[in-house]
Amino acid sequence: MADEPIDLKTLDNILEVFKGKKAVIPILQKAQSAYGYLPKEVLKAISEKTGIPLSQLMGVATFYAQFRLTRQGRNLIRVCDGTACHVRGAPKSVEAIEHALNIPAGGTSDDYKYSMEIVYCLGSCGLAPVAVVNDKVYGQIEPQKIVEQLKKLE
Ligand code: FES
Q1: Of 125, 1, 138, 123, nearest to 76 (Cα)?
Q2: How many CA atoms lie within 13 A of 30 on its CB side?
């Protein structure tokens, strides 16, 4: 699927709110919530329009885990591979998801339907192995079952 063109008008509206302020983190947060991630074109435009050096924007965007520099899938799958989940078979579910849905761990499917992150403890070890899909918690996941549940997502 081809990337959609980036509409920079949305960014102009965001920057209007921060007029004259070099509020790097709030600007990046607003831009990310508008675009879903921080495309290069958007970072360049922020730099040109605010005078904040691109290197500074990139430094902040890469330092904080909250910022994403690549487009994410519509559905975010976070599979826990912390100790409790690992010993209860989380890697088998990760493998099943990778193969069945063609999503690399830590990556996004070609059709941008899914992104999968591996995390190390979701604070629900009693439900291990655990996955959180679009903020919904799935406990005691099993490879085939979680794949079927993920296939049902839009
Ligand atoms: S180790 Fe997976 S939820 Fe804690």
Answers
A1: 138
A2: 14
130 in contact with ligand 1, CB cutoff 6 A: yes
Is residue 34 in a domain? yes
Query: What does the pLDDT look like over 88-100, one tens digit per residue?
Result: 999 999 999 999 9
Q: Are residues 101 and 55 in the same domain?
A: no
Residue 82 CA to ligand 1 center (angstroms) comes to: 5
Quote the domain boundaries for residue 142: 75-151
pTM: 0.76
Same domain, 109 and 85: yes
Distance 60 CA to ligand 1 centre (A): 29
